[in-house]
Amino acid sequence: MSGEVFFQQFLNALSLGVMYALIAVGFTLFFGVIEVVNFAHGEVFMMGAFVALIVSGILISAGFTMGSLPLLVAVLMAVLVAGGIIGVLLEKFIVRPMRGAPDIMTLLITLGISIVMREAVMLLVPNGRNPQPFPNLMNLDSIQIGGVLIKPETILSIVLSAILIGGLAYIIEKTTFGRYIRATAQDREAAMMMGINVKKVFIITLALGSALGAVAGLMNGLSYGIIKFDMGFAASIKGFAAAVVGGLGNVYGAIAGGLLLGFLEIFVVSVIPDGSSYQDIVSFVIVILCLVFRPAGIFGERAYEKV
Amino acid sequence: MKKKFLFVLAMLTTVVMLVTGCGAKKSDTIKIGFIGPLTGGNAATGIGLKNSAELAIREANASGKYKHKFELVVVDDGGNPSTAVSAANKLIANKDIVAVFGHFNSGAALATVPIFHKNGMPILVTAAIHPDITKGKYKEVTRIMTAANVQNEFAGKTAVKDWGIKTIALINDKTDYGKTNADQFADAAKKNGATIISEDGISVGQQDFSALLTKIKAENPEAIYFGGVATEAALLKRQMADLNMNCLFLSDSGIISDTFNKIAGSASAGMIAFNIGKPLEDLPGGKAFEKSYAAAKFAEPHEAYGHFAYDSANVVMAAVEKAGEQGAITRSSVATAIRATKDFPCIIGKTTFDERGENTLKLITPYISEGGKWVPYYKATTQVVNKKVVKK
Amino acid sequence: MIKILLTEIIGYILFLFFVYVEEPIAVVAVMAAFVFAVLFLKKKCGEFVKSLEKTYADNLGQVGIIAVVLALTMPFALMGDAYWLQILNFSMLYAIMALGLNFMTGRAGMICLGYAAFMAIGAYTVGILTLKLGVSFWLALPLAGLLASVFGVILGLPALRVKGHYLALVTIAFGLIVQQLLLNLESITGGTNGLINIPSPHLMGMDMGANLNLSFMSMSYQANFYYLCLIILAITTILIYRFSNSLFGLALNAMREDQLAAQCYGMNITRYKLLAFAVGAFFGGISGGLYAAMINFIAPENFGYSMSILVISMIILGGLDSIPGAIIGAFFLTIFPEKFRAFEDYRVMFYGIIIVLCLLFMREGLLPFKHRIFKPGMPKGEN
């Protein structure tokens, strides 16, 4: 593989990886803090993309111009807020009623609501069954360096992800509320006894994780130019796989897992003959291998029952 | 307690019986079945087929040109094999139905054809193109649409002989449809002297082809052929444009829809695909069909293949008439009569069925995307010159 | 005995009416009337209903035999209607799958979201053996079940190390990998085209794919499969019932409730987990094999994630770990959508809504299973 091709593939992998990382962080937060696997997280990703589609449609017909910074910022804000709201709703109506129920039930109910969300979008969006073109919000040309082409969307994805994840890490590590989150993750009962409002922690965690997932959806729409009602399913599986590989409950693990998965997929396609047929199941095989040989993930999960 | 219980049960039963009612309709019109995707992803196409078929039936009944009156019994195959099988059984169970036509999805048709054959029900396949549908050469099975293998042979020949392509990279979406088209195209191209330099599969629903296209770009093929449908084709074309790849990009009839142009956006220009059939306005009966369809004021458009359903209905009705002239109208006699159709005037031209049940009339037209629209190649302003697409 | 007979016959008649009612509005009316009646009865005649339930629970053998006898007459009551017989056949296939999955997920607590893979393995085993190697269906079917069991154990191995959420992920991955392999291994499986013209089984010279010709009437071939499925469903129910009520089943229950405690009691968790997978998968394979012989056409697209979800929703609706619940859930979710063909597009969303609503409001399902109380010295573990 020539140097140029290598670098091009490297960029491909990086942009794919950060997207997986954003979703994985959500999964890992939910598991670490609330002890819940939220199968509906992929659908939040999808909703983020659709919210972006609808909001940009409204703004553009209201006079915003394509490719302008205000438009991009407005859409981004809308997506973050929408993600947060969906997270709060999920917590109130789906997660909270299931407290105390066996894990299977919580898992299944998030699965159920993910189906409802997916089908609802398919049925309510006009021509929803088909892929929807995503507006070209950036409207910039690719940059060419040598034989390598860099899309501005790729740069945006990488930069935005870094900022968001960095911001999240800051919140968790340096703020008081972040300390509450860490305490709840470490030992929920002790946190309650220390007077931490665990309910509030749950709500905020779900809101944060979902907001990140929603932005990943926006990035996906920008990068590929289309969104579809079932884009959440693959995102769920891969995001969850990345989180597991990195160690459920460990935010840095999730980031590493996401990047690893992205790079692995690109590697399989570019190096192995007819590898692209197997691009999707690479994640699954990796997950299974990981679970068999190193169940705690690469960085080790914040486990509660190490038995 | 027990009395109350029984009372409630009795009330319940009475309610049920009252509500059920009855209503069997006796009639001596000839019933023909239509099976197609009325729900699901291809509902628009299916409803267009259904409406066109209804139009044909209405016209025949109104014109009085046939001795019998006809009635269309419609069932939904949902575009997938399981639903199709249920629907087929429903039609077969109705003893009044003497013939069936329809199907757009090959998967559905492949599943129902053995069942129709087992029950001696004639099935005229309207718009499903998988070659294996007629593999059994059953006397009940005929197809009015040109099968996919013809499309792909034509495509392979055109690419190599007319446009001088020598090296091709093959991509397919790993579905029955996509893979069959890609393989048959490859065989035709190889037969005419080209080389296939790589073969790759992608998944339906996949979005990221950057790695795959980067790899293919490094191999420098003169053309890429994609077997699959609109969404993935559009994504591939877009990502090819992102990578500054301007080799020829060819595909099958499945991508010829507005969806492709919408999703590929400005990158759509120059995409070439081989369509089955010919533009309606250039077909012998096309303009008349457009007029009658518009006059009938259906809620939905006839979509791309409506006229095939119209033709199917007419072929079946004519066959029923012929069977009636020669004896009793049974599924078996109608099947024989449909098979014996020769030079029957259709919108698409003169239809005759060969020994396998395929239409001897073959229509394949290359299309090219320009200005966000699909244009038949023979009418387009951009053409292939020196293995690149340029404006004439 | 009389009570059981009467109530079952009434249920039979109601079912027939449900079949013959055509208008969707009428169907809704009937269902609503039925629900009201049940609620009314529970309120006003609570005592009577309770005693009825006890009669059922104490005389399961009678319940079963009467049900089977009534079921035997169903094709005649339906006048050989191929369409409805086919739907009943599908319901029975799903019921077999639901029983198998219920055993794995409900009784043993091993969540499985990739169950369709076992059905696929069973279907392709029968398909390949009968179509390409000319093996008799009657030999291929048990082999299908056994091969599915083997795959169940294969799935069980990584599952040993994980539980709960991870297990869900592993099972989803398993389902998708199996589907992908079926697509890619074209030479054996026919790839995306699938296998066409799988031969119907022959029984004592009679081709089950041909019409059933009795002296007084002729019914289309679905009737043959109806009886076959009925027999296999009956056998499955008995087997699952036996497994569940044995010490084996009790152990699985213990494992489900608290794995750590069970281990402390000396239970060999590994063995039980693998066995649970093997048994559950076996029935998936059987139902897949039946499907292949009945429809004569299988393709990987039939056995995807939605199929796995469908079976899960069936057992949730019926009640996890409830045998009659699994059967009822399967029948309901197969037959009900058929009546509402016009709403076909909403079918999948309907399944999702069922899952959510059931888990929120009716966690025990339609026919909840009462926890077993095991007292040493009692002949049967009963409530």
Molecular structure report:
- The complex is a heterotrimer of chains A (307), B (392) and C (383).
- In chain A, the strands form two sheets. A two-stranded antiparallel ribbon of chain A has the order 1-4. In chain A, strands 2-3 form a two-stranded antiparallel ribbon.
- Chain A has a domain at 22-230.
- With 307 residues, chain A is mainly alpha-helical.
- Chain A has helices at residues 3-34, 41-61, 69-95, 103-124, 152-174, 176-186, 188-193, 198-224, 231-246, 251-271, 279-293, and strands at residues 132-133, 143-145, 148-150, 226-227.
- Chain B has two domains: 30-146 and 281-361, Response regulator (Rossmann fold), CATH 3.40.50; 149-276 and 365-391, Rossmann fold (3-Layer(aba) Sandwich), CATH 3.40.50.
- In chain B, helix 2 (43-63) packs across helix 11, helix 3 (81-93) packs parallel to helix 4 (106-118) and helix 5 (148-162) packs across helix 6.
- Chain B has a seven-stranded mixed β-sheet with strand order 7-6-8-9-10-13-14, sandwiched between helices. A five-stranded parallel β-sheet of chain B has the order 2-1-3-4-5, with helices on both faces. Chain B has a two-stranded antiparallel ribbon with strand order 11-12.
- Chain B is 43% helix and 20% strand.
- Chain B is elongated.
- With 392 residues, chain B is α/β, with parallel strands linked by helices.
- With 383 residues, chain C is mainly alpha-helical.
- Chain C has two domains: 1-77, no CATH class; 80-361, ABC transporter involved in vitamin B12 uptake, BtuC (Orthogonal Bundle), CATH 1.10.3470.
- Chain C is 72% helix and 3% strand.
- Chain C contains 16 helices and six strands.
- Chain C is globular and about 55 Å long.
- The two termini of chain C are 21 Å apart.
- The chains are: A mainly alpha (307), B alpha/beta (392), C mainly alpha (383).
- At the B-C interface, helix 1, helix 3, helix 4 and helix 6 of B face helix 1, helix 2 and helix 5 of C.
